[in-house]
Amino acid sequence: MAHDPAEYPWLSGSVTFTQACLDGVDADAQRGLLADEECCGLMAGPRENELLCDTTTPLENRANKLHAIDPETFTRTGREYFDLHPLKFQRALDEGAKQGRPVKVLYHSHIDCGAYFSETDAAAATGNSSELLHPLAYLVVSIRTGGLIDDRKLFVYDGPSRSFVESPFFVRPA
């Protein structure tokens, strides 16, 4: 399903994050590193300020649990990817829209491997199709052993090229 950037301006990138919002992502990445798993969550903001994200909501990465239950089907661990509970994810999107605080960005961390949008990330965001499943931009945070956040990159979907491209983002001080 194609999502109209006129209705969801953050799909074009150039999102502004409050420093407190990014601090929340960094804290979640630190927690994830200690648990040896990628963190993941949502960033939302007021509908009337379409390119602003001012809240962070961490979500559970189910990858380690799924791997423990069925390692043949779920061959990778939470250190290598994240898996969101689909109903909880959809509920968060619906609730944000209902309250006038839409979810605009899905974030996750990469441990010891840089901030890039992987093929796995792209497949999850598109359902292996040529369209986004949800009207979201994507923030990837690189965290290194020892706790150093060494990079953050925002990615948006480019329909004509059917790929994710890096977009600038801005930080509003506290």
Walkthrough of the structure:
By secondary structure, this protein is of the alpha/beta class. The protein has one domain (9-169): Cytidine Deaminase, domain 2 (3-Layer(aba) Sandwich), CATH 3.40.140.10. Helix content is 25%, strand content 28%. It has four helices and nine strands, in the order E-H-E-E-E-H-H-E-H-E-E-E-E. The strands form two sheets. It has a six-stranded mixed β-sheet. Helix 4 links the parallel strand 5 (103-111) and strand 6 (137-143). The N and C termini lie far apart (36 Å). The relative contact order is 0.22. The mean pLDDT is 95.
Index terms:
Cytidine Deaminase, domain 2, six-stranded mixed β-sheet, three-stranded parallel β-sheet, alpha/beta, 28% strand, 174 residues, 4 helices
